[in-house]
Inverse folding.
């Protein structure tokens, strides 16, 4: 029994590591889902469109595993202070990651319904928006996996450009709809695609905020330097 | 010190009760936000439109309070089994409630931008959808506050009707847009209103699932009897 404390600490560290591993895998999966969803739309790629919804069940399973392992650690190890804050952050971030996966799947399902617009629309605003959101998501996941508060703060500062591209895209789409009523159906799908991408960006920002709080114990200000639903700014005409 | 255990238990029960009280208040607030947001659209009521965004900061503050109290309880009391599962559920549900508040605010901000359609559109599908979603949300909050697994299961079963109304509304709106390009702007706002209402319904269902798990220790099946983003069904043309 003399070895018990050291043994306990080792097991505990392993469990924390394993919890971290689960959300790291979730992060990798939802990054993949987002990348494929964007490719599905802007390249009209059927194979890419099929992947995100297929990955959803795996993401859901990981979310449940994270929750069960977190409960197990809380029950058996009664962690304190920083560890406790990080376990709670992991629980909340796994929820954000699950939502990101859902939004990516929703984008993928609409991807091929915009085909009638092919050629007429350059997808350039959407392409740029997709790139930015993917970058932010990637940095948020890295910050999460590496417990990096500085990187988290970068993500938190980087989201305004996404909103500007969203507004550009919105105007472009309304113009297409006005020009020809046959564009209305496909353009509505693209509007929802853009909205879902914007929400993925919001959840990446949420993750960044949680990493920052878990690591530093300080909250970032509740007014975020960006738009989107979660930012509580009044909806512009471009929304 | 002989009284310490009884004293500790009492304090602990009070803290759990107080955590429950915070999410109950959150539930009441987001119900109010949702009701006012729907009224703002279907009755074109300006006063109602102002309220949901004004309540957002209060909801956010309560979410943070819930998280901090949960961490405190976990740190000081090291709760076991059912209590632990319920504290984790509260953490997750406070996230759902916060999202519901966001969606309600987003609806409220769009409410008066559909005014040009007034008279042309009966809002009857939206009115019915709003009523159903509010009922589901109310039952989900009740199930949460009263720890009622049976009621939670009712909510979980009740969401399909919302999707049917959404599809009806979607078709109606596309028809208006095709008839007159001047309807396109306001109709897009209404499409997002309907989508946001549907998402509020999804989060009410999430809450019901979490209550069920927290109380029974069993998960409801991952395939839910309903549509919407979170249900992972293929997007219909009506989406």
């Amino acid at each position: 029994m003399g070895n018990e404390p050291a043994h306990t600490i080792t097991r505990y560290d392993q469990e924390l590591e394993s919890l971290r591993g689960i959300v790291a895998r979730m992060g990798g999966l939802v990054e993949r889902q987002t990348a494929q969803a964007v490719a599905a739309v802007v390249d009209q790629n059927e194979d890419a469109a099929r992947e995100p919804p297929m990955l959803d069940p795996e993401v859901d399973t990981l979310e449940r595993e994270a929750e069960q392992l977190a409960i197990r650690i809380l029950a058996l190890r009664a962690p304190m202070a920083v560890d406790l804050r990080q376990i709670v952050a992991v629980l909340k971030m796994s929820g954000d990651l699950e939502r990101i996966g859902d939004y990516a799947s929703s984008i993928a399902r609409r991807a091929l319904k915009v085909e009638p617009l092919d050629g007429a629309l350059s997808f350039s605003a959407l392409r740029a928006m997709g790139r930015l959101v993917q970058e932010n998501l990637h940095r948020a996941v890295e910050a999460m996996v590496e417990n990096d508060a500085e990187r988290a703060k970068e993500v938190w500062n980087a989201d305004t450009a996404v909103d500007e591209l969203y507004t550009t895209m919105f105007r472009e789409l309304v113009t297409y709809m006005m020009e020809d009523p046959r564009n209305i159906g496909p353009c509505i799908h693209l509007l929802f695609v853009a909205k879902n991408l914007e929400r993925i960006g919001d959840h990446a920002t949420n993750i960044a905020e949680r990493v920052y709080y878990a690591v530093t114990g300080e909250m970032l200000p509740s007014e975020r330097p960006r738009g989107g639903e979660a930012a509580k700014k009044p909806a512009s005409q471009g929304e």
About this structure: Chain B has one domain: 4-231.
